[in-house]
Design brief:
alpha+beta; Jelly Rolls; 2 domains; four-stranded antiparallel β-sheet; three-stranded antiparallel β-sheet; 6 helices; 11 strands; binds 2-acetamido-2-deoxy-beta-D-glucopyranose; Lectin_gal-bd_dom; lectin; L-rhamnose-binding lectin SML-like; carbohydrate binding
């Protein structure tokens, strides 16, 4: 019994190690010597998920070479909004490039030599794109041991031909029915499989009179929490 418990613990540890190796944190640090210096994030496999980002200085050692101490001693310098900007620019992309000027037009700490640093993970993915016509179910499913991670979901219509068979022209003419929804992510993220109905009862009734569909992209990833 004791032996069994021990091996069960070891098994869990081994599985966690395996999963952790599927999602590793990467760091990119760019010393901001001039305004248009390029901060580039890239995932060889999968898509970027930004964990944290800093424009300023939180450490006197990073990017200190050749600088006088007074330019590197303020370690409490953060441009607010920098992290949200990097997230909006880079999340779900395979790569992204940012200039200092994109992040900030102000100077959060005049006289301090600053850097841009981002910690991110690459979410290893097999992405699936699917459509579910109004009143159909969307079935999301990942391989054993992997979790659903919704990348985008729109309940509406952006295309004339999708879900159009035998519909009257007035029901399919509005292709500007954009209605991104967080509901699929709320219900399905972190699960191995998930079924959700493409209907007004679930998503509300945008674009009255239009026959809609759920346009969904999701990834399968190893769980990030151990
Ligand atoms: C990135 O991660 C490293 C290591 O955990 C940490 O020291 C650093 O402060 C992080 N950077 C940001 C911008 O959060
Ligand atoms: C990108 O991923 C985030 C989660 O990191 C998600 O909330 C968001 O809806 C996604 N956006 C797009 C455009 O795929
Ligand atoms: C609409 O969808 C069809 C089928 O997927 C595709 O071939 C076509 O390019 C799309 N049209 C537009 C305008 O996106």
């Amino acid at each position: 019994m004791q032996l069994f418990r021990l091996s069960a613990t070891m098994l869990v540890a081994a599985v966690c190690l395996f999963m952790a190796s599927g999602v590793s944190t990467e760091t990119v640090t760019t010393c901001v010597d001039f305004d248009d210096v390029v901060h580039r994030l890239e995932c060889e496999k999968g898509v970027i998920s930004v964990e944290s980002a800093l424009y300023g200085r939180a450490n006197s050692f990073i990017c200190h070479e050749g600088k006088p101490t007074h330019q590197t001693s303020d370690t409490n310098c953060h441009q607010s909004g920098a992290e949200n900007f990097v997230k909006s620019r880079c999340n779900n992309k395979t790569f992204c490039e940012i200039n200092r000027v994109d992040v900030s037009s102000e100077d959060p700490c005049y006289g301090t030599y600053k850097y841009l640093q981002t910690n991110f993970t690459c979410i290893h993915t097999k992405t699936t794109h699917l459509f579910a016509c109004q009143e159909s179910y969307a079935h999301l499913k990942c391989d054993y041991g992997m979790d659903i991670y919704v990348l985008s979901a729109n309940y509406g219509r952006n295309n004339h031909t999708i879900c159009s068979a035998n519909r009257t022209p007035s029901q399919i003419e509005d292709v500007t029915c954009s209605n991104p929804t967080p509901i699929v992510a709320q219900r399905c993220n972190g699960r191995n499989s998930c079924t959700i109905r493409a209907s007004n009862s679930v998503f509300g009734a945008p674009c009255d009179g239009t026959y809609k569909y759920l346009d969904l992209t999701y990834a399968c990833q190893y769980p990030t929490h151990c």
